[in-house]
C-alpha cells in the first residue's frame, strides 16, 4: 500500500463508531506486552477468516474509545519492528506472521498499522499453543463453535483415506501384512484369540487400513509392494537415509520405498547407534550408553510418515551426522506449538492424514495421543542429552536429536536436580544452546535461582552450583564488586607508577566474569578507567590510541 492509501485506510478505521472483530486500537504509548500482542494476532487472524476478510488490523497510537490519534513509541527503530515478524512467527500455527507492519505519521504523531492475515482455510491460528477470538471488543478463547466453523472450510477428502480402485490385495506385501498382524496383536491383546479366524481382508478392515475390503492409499503406503508405488503417483512413498560428515560432505546414502512398515526397520538398521562414552565425572554417569534411544529413532521416522504432506510429492529424509540425527518431512506442524504437545501432553486436534495416523496407531507405529514426542524429550532428559530441536519454518518439520552431551554443567544439573519439571528443563536447554529466553522464562529461572548473569549471557546459578560442585565455575562467572577492580587499578599504579591500557587489560582480564566476551571485557575496563579519571584519581599521559595512565 502507498502512504496515501494507508492514510485513507486509517481514516476509515478511525471513523468506525466502535471496534469490531477485525479491528483493534491500542494506545501503546511506549511499550506493549508481547504475549498480549500475540494473542490479538491469533484472535484477529481467526476473526478475519470467519468474517471472510483477507486481513485484519491492529493499530497502535490510537485511543480505543474516541479513536483520537495519540502516537506510539513502541519499537521506535525499524529493525526492531521488522524483527517482531520473526518473533511472532515462532509462536504461531504454520509460522504465520504479519503481512506488513506499516509506520505512518498523522498530525506529527507516529501510528503503527499491523496488517494481520486471515487464518488459512480450515486451520485456526494459535499463538503459543492456544487459540483466541474476539467477543465484541474483548479478547477471548476461540470457542468450539468457531473452531468447527473454521475446520468445516476444509471438508476436503483425507488424502490418505482415498480408495485406489485399480489396486487389489495382490498389490500388498505378504511380509508387511505379517508384521502388521503381529503389531496389531501386541497393541490389542484382547483380540488375539479372535484374530486367528480373521482372513487378510477382515484383519485389514479391523485395523482400519482398508475400507470395506477396498485398498486405500494408506494400505499402499504401509503395506504395498515396492512395484505398487505407481498407484500413488505423483506422490512419493520413499525414505532417503544419508550419512554425512561434519563438513556436510556425503559419505553414503540409501533410499527405501514401499512398504514403509518394513522400511522403518531398514532405515533404523542403517543408523550407527554406537556407544557413547561419558567423560569421567565421578559416579553420577554410567560408563557408556547408546547414542540414541531406539524408541526415539523409530518414533521420529514414523511421525514423518504419519504427518508427511504427500501432495507435495517429496521424500522423507533421515540425515545421520557424527553426533546427531535429522528428520524432515514436508508440511506444516499442525499442532502449531511443540511446547503445547510436550508440556501439556495434549492430543492433536487436527490431523493432515487422519486415516493414515489411525492405521499406524492400530499397527503400533505411532501414538496418536501426542505422547510419542514427549517420550523422546524424556529419553533425552534421562540421558542428560540436549532436548530435541524443532524447526517448523518453510512449510516443513525438521527434528534434530543429539547423540552426545553438549554442556557438562547442564548434564550435572539434570543429574542432581530430579525435581525439575520438563518445562524448566526445556528452558535450561535454551541456556546451554545460547538460545534467547522469553521474559517469562528468564523470570521463572531467575526466581528459582537456576540461572544468573545478564541477558543474553546467562549461566548456572549459585543454588545449582552448590549442589553440583560447580562453585569454582560459579565464582568465575560471578563478577567481583566494582570497588575491587577500582582498588586493584589504584594499587597497581602505586606499585608501577605508569601502566599502559594493555597492561591494565592484562591485570583485570582473567578476573572479569567468564560470561563476558572480549568486547564486553574491553568496555568494562574502559568504564572503570573513565570513572577513576572523572574522580580525578588517575589521568592519561599518553594519547587516545596509546593511553598511559598514572595517579593524579
Question: TL;DR?
Answer:
The chain has 552 residues and is of the alpha+beta class. It contains 21 helices and 20 strands. A hairpin with a 2-residue loop joins β16 (451-454) and β17 (457-460).
Tell me how many strands there are. 20
- Strands of the largest sheet, in order across it? 9-8-12-13-15-14
Helix-and-strand structural type: alpha+beta
Oligomer: single chain
Mean pLDDT value: 88
Contiguous helical run count: 21
Structural notes for this entry:
- The protein has 552 residues and is of the alpha+beta class.
- 39% of the residues lie in helices and 18% in strands.
- It contains 21 helices and 20 strands.
- The strands form six sheets. A six-stranded mixed sheet has the order 9-8-12-13-15-14, covered by helices on one side. A four-stranded mixed sheet has the order 1-2-4-3, sandwiched between helices.
- α17 runs antiparallel to α18.
- The chain starts with a helix and ends with a strand.
Amino acid at each position: 500500500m502507498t502512504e496515501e492509501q494507508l492514510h485513507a485506510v486509517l481514516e476509515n478505521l478511525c471513523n468506525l463508531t466502535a471496534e469490531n472483530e477485525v479491528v483493534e486500537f491500542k494506545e501503546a504509548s511506549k511499550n506493549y506486552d508481547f504475549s498480549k500482542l500475540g494473542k490479538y494476532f491469533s484472535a484477529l487472524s481467526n476473526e478475519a477468516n470467519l468474517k471472510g476478510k483477507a486481513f485484519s488490523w491492529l493499530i497502535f497510537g490510537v485511543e480505543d474509545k474516541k479513536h483520537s490519534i495519540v502516537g506510539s513509541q513502541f519499537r521506535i527503530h525499524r529493525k526492531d519492528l521488522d524483527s517482531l515478524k520473526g518473533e511472532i512467527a515462532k509462536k504461531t500455527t504454520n509460522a504465520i506472521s504479519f503481512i506488513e507492519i506499516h509506520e505512518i505519521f498523522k498530525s506529527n504523531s507516529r501510528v503503527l498499522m499491523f496488517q494481520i492475515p486471515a487464518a488459512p482455510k480450515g486451520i485456526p491460528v494459535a499463538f503459543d499453543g492456544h487459540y483466541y477470538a474476539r467477543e465484541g471488543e474483548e479478547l477471548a478463547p476461540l470457542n468450539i463453535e468457531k473452531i468447527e466453523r473454521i475446520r468445516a472450510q476444509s471438508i476436503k477428502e483425507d488424502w490418505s483415506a482415498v480408495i485406489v480402485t485399480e489396486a487389489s490385495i495382490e498389490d500388498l506385501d505378504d511380509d508387511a501384512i505379517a508384521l502388521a498382524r503381529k503389531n496389531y496383536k501386541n497393541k490389542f491383546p484382547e483380540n488375539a484369540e479372535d484374530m486367528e479366524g480373521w482372513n487378510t481382508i477382515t484383519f485389514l478392515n479391523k485395523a482400519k487400513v482398508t475400507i470395506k475390503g477396498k485398498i486405500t492409499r494408506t494400505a499402499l503406503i504401509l503395506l504395498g509392494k515396492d512395484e505398487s508405488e505407481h498407484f500413488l503417483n505423483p506422490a512419493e512413498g520413499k525414505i532417503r537415509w544419508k550419512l554425512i560428515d561434519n563438513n556436510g560432505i556425503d559419505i553414503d546414502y540409501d533410499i527405501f520405498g514401499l512398504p514403509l512398515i518394513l522400511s522403518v526397520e531398514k532405515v533404523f538398521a542403517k543408523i550407527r547407534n554406537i556407544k557413547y562414552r561419558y567423560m569421567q565425572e565421578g559416579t553420577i554417569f554410567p560408563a557408556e550408553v547408546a547414542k540414541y534411544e531406539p524408541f526415539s529413532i523409530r518414533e521420529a521416522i514414523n511421525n514423518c510418515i504419519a504427518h508427511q504432506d504427500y501432495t507435495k510429492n517429496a521424500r522423507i529424509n533421515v540425515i545421520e551426522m557424527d553426533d546427531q540425527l535429522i528428520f524432515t518431512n514436508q508440511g506444516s506442524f499442525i499442532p502449531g506449538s511443540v511446547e503445547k504437545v510436550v508440556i501439556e501432553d495434549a492430543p492433536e486436534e487436527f490431523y493432515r492424514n487422519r486415516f493414515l495416523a489411525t492405521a499406524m496407531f492400530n499397527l503400533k507405529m505411532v501414538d496418536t495421543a501426542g505422547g510419542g514426542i514427549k517420550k523422546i524429550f524424556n529419553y533425552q532428559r534421562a540421558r542428560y542429552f540436549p532436548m530435541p530441536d524443532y524447526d517448523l519454518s518453510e512449510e516443513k518439520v525438521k527434528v534434530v536429536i543429539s547423540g552426545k552431551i553438549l554442556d557438562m554443567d547442564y548434564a550435572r544439573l539434570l543429574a542432581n536436580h530430579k525435581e525439575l519439571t520438563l518445562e524448566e528443563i526445556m528452558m535450561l536447554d535454551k541456556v546451554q544452546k545460547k538460545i534467547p529466553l522469553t521474559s517469562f522464562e528468564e523470570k521463572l529461572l531467575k526466581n528459582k535461582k537456576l540461572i544468573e548473569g545478564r541477558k543474553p549471557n546467562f549461566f548456572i546459578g549459585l543454588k545449582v552450583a552448590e549442589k553440583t560442585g560447580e562453585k569454582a565455575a560459579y565464582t568465575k562467572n560471578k563478577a567481583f564488586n566494582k570497588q575491587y577492580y577500582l582498588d586493584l587499578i589504584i594499587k597497581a599504579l602505586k606499585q608501577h607508577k605508569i601502566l599502559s591500557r594493555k597492561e591494565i587489560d592484562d591485570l583485570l582480564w582473567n578476573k572479569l566474569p567468564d560470561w563476558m566476551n572480549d568486547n564486553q571485557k574491553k568496555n568494562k575496563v574502559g568504564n572503570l578507567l573513565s570513572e577513576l579519571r572523572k574522580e580525578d584519581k588517575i589521568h592519561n599521559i599518553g594519547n587516545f590510541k596509546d593511553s598511559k595512565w598514572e595517579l593524579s
